[in-house]
Amino acid sequence: MALRPKISPLDPGIMVAESQISDAAQAGGPFGRLDNLPRVRMADGPTPLERLSNLEAQIGGPALYAKRDDTQPIAFGGNKVRQLEFYFGDALSQGADTVLITGAVQSNFCRTCAAFAAKLGMDCRIQMEDRVPKNDPLYRQSGNVLVSRLLGADLTIFPRGEDEEGADAELEDLAQRLRDEGRKPYVIHLAPGHAPIGALGYIEAAREIARQIEAQGVDPTGYVVPSGSGATHTGLLFGLRVLGIETPVLGICVRRGADLQRLRLIRRCAEIAEILGISSPVTEDDIQITDAFLAPGYGMLNEPTREAIVTGAKTEALMLDPVYSGKAMAGFLDWARSASADDCLVFVHTGGTPGIFAYGNALNEACGWDDG
Q1: Pick from 81, 79, 78, 1: which is nearest to 38 by CA?
Q2: pLDDT class of 160 with cuts at 50, 70, 90
Q3: HSE toward the beta carbon, residue 191, CA cutoff 13 A
Q4: CA dist., res. 329 & res. 226, Å (int)
Q5: What is the pLDDT of residue 372?
Q6: Which residues, including other chains, have CB under 8 Å from residue 30's CB and lie 6 or more apart?
């Protein structure tokens, strides 16, 4: 079974692609092919589902928890570990020796990809897209950039920050040059139209969470997750719905506005269903997102995010970055402050710790701290 089909564009109004459901997928149970797909396991057991008692006391309302995927064990962890287990499983099944990936200058995905490649003895080529208008040397040299270099990745710049198709095309050109040299490259694409293999990691996370909430006697009434590429958001939502869990999953937009993100998520769910060979259990009403914490744009710090980063650190020693987890925490706090005492909210902590250092100057300035 080919894992990486080129997915045809879908009508945004269609949630589930009308396709034949294979007997093999049916035999695999409700998750279809999931457990039969190639995977490289780097995660060391389930990540904690941790009660945020100090934050509860400060807010004075619902029960609050964090799913601590920031504690994943490889190179600062984060949500990309779950996603890359499936990408690298696919890469190794094809005999790849080099992995190519594209992302923002301070991409957690690229940094974690470099870590996987280092552990598996593969080469890693990172294409850094100039998405954020920052000339701060710290932003361009520290954080994920520094860690990726330490891990041995080869880094290049792609000058256009909002051209996903162009970024992918540039990677394909590089991949062809590597093939001409006798290498076996594997491309992790960014733009829609390619199978979102990474989302499978968060379907598995949904199963993990389901076991944890049962064991801990937790009854969530809502989950909050950053929503950028859509892999984490749709994977978690898809997995919960397959399990029959109807709890809302609120995505906090970190890359694009809610209207565009909604179309992306709808398409992602249909693509996931195609990979697994099952019908999607997700409806359009399940897609809950907000872009209230996005401005002034991707990778740009705002006041709710600054406040969320400081609050998370001071109350629960949570390290949150300005790009993803900090904005998601801003949305989580906003929901928590309006929720009732009967609610129970879960913050999916996707990590991003190295980004704190890359944004050190901006955070110091926004918080009014000086070097004295």
Answers
A1: 1
A2: confident
A3: 17
A4: 9
A5: 52
A6: 242, 243, 278
- Helix, strand, or coil (residue 295): coil
Segment 296-303 shows an average pLDDT of 95
Question: Could you say which of 22, 107, 142, 229 is catalytic?
Answer: 107
Secondary structure (3-state) at 98:
strand
Query: Where would I find the beta strands (DSSP E) of the chain?
Result: 49-51, 63-68, 98-104, 123-129, 154-158, 185-188, 222-227, 249-253, 288-290, 344-349
Beta bridge partners of 126: 101, 155
Residue of 216, 86, 219, 107 lying closest to 153 (CA atoms): 107
Q: Does residue 18 sit within a domain?
A: no
Which CATH number belongs to the domain containing residue 137 in this structure? 3.40.50.1100
CA distances from 245 to 95, 221, 271 (A): 38, 10, 21
Is residue 151 located within the same domain as residue 291? no
The 3-state DSSP class for residue 66 equals strand
Please give the pLDDT value at position 371: 64
Number of separate domains in the chain: 2
In a domain, 341, yes or no: yes
Q: Per-residue pLDDT for 23 more than 70?
A: no
What range does the domain containing 64 cover?
29-77+196-367
Mark whether 107 is an active-site residue. yes
Give the global pTM.
Answer: 0.92
pLDDT of residue 10: 34
- Straight-line distance from the first to the last Cα atom of the chain, in angstroms, rounded to the nearest whole number: 61
